[in-house]
């Protein structure tokens, strides 16, 4: 099952240099399992040909409202009725103004006006010069299309085709794909604020070396993404990992367990759900040497002493916010054997309502995993799947438990 399996997307192109990115976006939609119907304005065909878009989508492109290929000669009705979403990428300043005015003198604007708004979301990826973007008329029009029910996906910032630098670039195809996939997810965490820890920590021995572990951070990042897709505000406290920040997620980078604790505690007052996926080092060197520890030629090895790190999850679990049932805590347990018994014991020890167990060596660095959920009612297994699929399932499980937990029942 891919992210857009079974989805029928109308990809609308309007006039703009960013049309060159729409070819890649179309490919990504198709690769994600979607059926893609491309509709172009006349202006768009000045920037990229319908031939390219037909080849990539595998379907004839529509440009005119007079297209006689439709038996009833009503492509503006038929194309919208089949769609699960209409995505305008790029959407020019002129086209946004046309949407605001309810114009309908060419196929794409006609199609947008005639779409069944309650069933077919309209997603807009604007693309224009920075001055056009910041102009009050454009900003006014964007606010109006949003008020009329469209979802405005925002813009990127950077070098523009005109040679200027600023806001107004169309988002990259991968970013747009992530936003469109997110638009289809049920908003089960709307109104919630998730705080997630992820990745390993790094405990310095000296300025050059340190102690860390194999955690990739993938599960925590997947949970942050899934929670955002489900409508939550998300803050991700990340140890040293090489992963891109999920769209719309606020990320705080840390190195040591102490930094992760400080960053987490600074965020708990706003959070309603805390998910601790980080593989926090249990110990840190008692003293980190200011300078590199050198071999002195005697063959003697340095003696290292360790101090125990604070348990971030247990610390948060004891906070007033948790006692008042305003912050729901979820812990993770990476075990090497006897998962069920260890997970139950760890849940009790940490004093948290939900603990998610997995077998460490089977998950570290992998793209898929299986999870064992342990709560006060017992156990439930989420069978092996991609970490993102598991994260989405876990987000649903958490959302389902929140009302009863808040009531104290
Ligand atoms: N955790 C934490 N801070 C720590 C250690 C662990 O927040 N200093 C959190 C982890 O993010 C995870 C849970 O506690 O959600 C369990 O971590 P784990 O390392 O598996 O358990 P430990 O408590 O360290 O127990 P043990 O080493 O005995 O398995």
Tell me the layout of helices and strands.
Blueprint: E1 8-13, H1 19-31, E2 35-40, H2 50-57, H3 75-82, E3 85-91, H4 93-101, H5 107-113, E4 122-126, H6 130-134, H7 136-147, E5 151-152, E6 156-159, E7 165-169, H8 173-183, E8 193-198, E9 203-204, E10 210-211, H9 218-229, E11 233-238, E12 250-253, H10 257-267, E13 273-276, E14 283-285, E15 306-308, H11 312-317, H12 320-323, E16 328-335, H13 339-350, E17 354-359, H14 360-363, E18 368-375, E19 378-386, H15 387-407
Parallel strand pairs: 1-2, 1-3, 3-4, 4-5, 8-11, 8-13, 11-12, 13-16, 16-17
Antiparallel strand pairs: 6-7, 9-10, 14-15, 17-18, 18-19
Helix pairs in contact: 1-2, 1-8, 3-5, 4-7, 9-15
The chain binds cytidine-5'-triphosphate.
Quick gist of this model?
The protein is α/β, with parallel strands linked by helices.
- The CATH architecture classification of the largest domain is 3-Layer(aba) Sandwich
Which strand order does the major sheet show?
Answer: 12-11-8-13-16-17-18-19
| Rg, Cα atoms, Å | 25 Å
Mean pLDDT: 95
């Amino acid at each position: 099952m891919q992210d857009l399996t079974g989805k029928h997307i109308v990809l609308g192109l309007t006039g703009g240099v960013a049309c060159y990115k729409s070819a890649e976006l179309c490919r990504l939609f198709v690769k994600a399992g979607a059926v893609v119907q491309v509709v172009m304005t006349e202006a768009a065909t000045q920037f990229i040909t319908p031939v390219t878009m037909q080849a990539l989508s595998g379907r004839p492109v529509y440009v005119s409202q007079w297209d006689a290929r439709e038996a009833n000669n009503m492509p503006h009705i038929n194309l919208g009725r089949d769609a699960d979403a209409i995505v305008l990428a790029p959407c020019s300043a002129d086209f946004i103004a046309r949407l605001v005015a309810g114009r309908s003198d060419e196929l794409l604007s006609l199609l947008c006006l005639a779409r069944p708004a309650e069933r077919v979301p309209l997603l807009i990826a604007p693309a224009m010069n920075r001055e056009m973007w910041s102009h009050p008329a454009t900003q006014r029009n964007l606010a109006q299309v949003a008020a009329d029910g469209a979802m405005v996906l925002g813009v990127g910032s950077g070098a523009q085709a005109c040679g200027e630098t600023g806001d107004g670039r169309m988002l990259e195809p991968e970013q747009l794909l992530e936003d469109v996939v997110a638009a289809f997810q049920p908003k089960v965490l709307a109104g919630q604020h998730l705080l997630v820890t992820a990745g390993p920590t790094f405990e310095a021995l000296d300025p050059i070396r340190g102690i860390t572990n194999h955690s990739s951070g993938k599960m925590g990042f997947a949970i942050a993404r899934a929670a955002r897709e489900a409508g939550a505000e998300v803050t991700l406290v990340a140890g040293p990992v090489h992963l891109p920040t999920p769209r719309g997620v606020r990320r705080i980078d840390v190195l040591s367990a102490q930094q992760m604790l400080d960053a987490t505690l600074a965020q708990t007052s706003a959070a309603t759900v805390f998910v601790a996926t980080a593989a926090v080092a249990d110990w840190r060197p008692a003293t980190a040497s200011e300078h590199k520890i050198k071999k002195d030629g005697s063959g003697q090895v340095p003696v290292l002493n360790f101090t125990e790190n604070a348990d971030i999850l247990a610390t948060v679990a004891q906070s007033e916010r948790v006692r008042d049932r305003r912050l729901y805590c979820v812990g993770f347990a990476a075990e090497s054997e006897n998962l069920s018994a260890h997970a139950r014991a760890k849940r009790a020890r940490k004093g948290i309502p939900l603990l998610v167990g997995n077998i460490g060596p089977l998950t570290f660095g992998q793209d898929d995993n299986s999870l064992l959920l342990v709560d006060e009612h017992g156990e439930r297994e989420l069978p092996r799947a991609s970490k993102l699929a598991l994260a989405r399932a876990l987000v649903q499980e958490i959302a389902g438990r929140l009302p009863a937990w808040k009531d104290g029942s």
